[in-house]
Amino acid sequence: MQPTPQVDSTNFVIAAFQGGGWGMVPIAIVMVFVIFIIFERFMTLAKLSVDKKDFNDKLFGFILRGDIRQAITFCDSKPAPLTNTLKAGLVQVLNRRPDEEVQVAMDGAALKEVPVLDGWTAFLAVFGNVATLLGLLGTIVGLIHSFRAVTNADPAQKATLLSSGIAEAMNCTAFGLIVAIPAIIAYGYYQTRTQRIVNDMNESSMNLMNLIVANRDKIKD
Question: Which pLDDT score is estimated for 2?
């Protein structure tokens, strides 16, 4: 029995790309943007994430001792949306502002941090949909070409021309989905990570506010 021939995956991908016609080019451009955003978001969120429990334990320790200046310095040492939000409230505490202004300062700081957390994440969903639509467009164009080609073709060539057009259409469909599926999965993942950080900011600011209200008398100048 003859051994099964090995298929070179690289040559297969190149052949599929070339066989997909012009529709592959815009999908490839979208793929470049998707890859860039995925890596950019991964690196950015890694830098903006903080261990909430460890940070809050240390920060709240300074507040219990009444050392607000040291608490602010500690926030400055770990710049991130969570730390920036809590720092905004601590600055108002240091200035002896009322509780309402402390809470407003933290709410305002949190609103400023949300766009930083979101970044280009929304474009992953956009590019995922665009890649799917481009794949569909390439499919339709490929089918149109195939049926036009066989209209006045020699009967002996009709099957070849028809299969060539259908292959072009299927290649575009597959390539569009290959780009769209990771983009949409990454969008959901980064949305979840961003929401988790926002929830940590809201929870920590609430806990900080309660701690400040209960320990106002310990605050040092």
Answer: 42
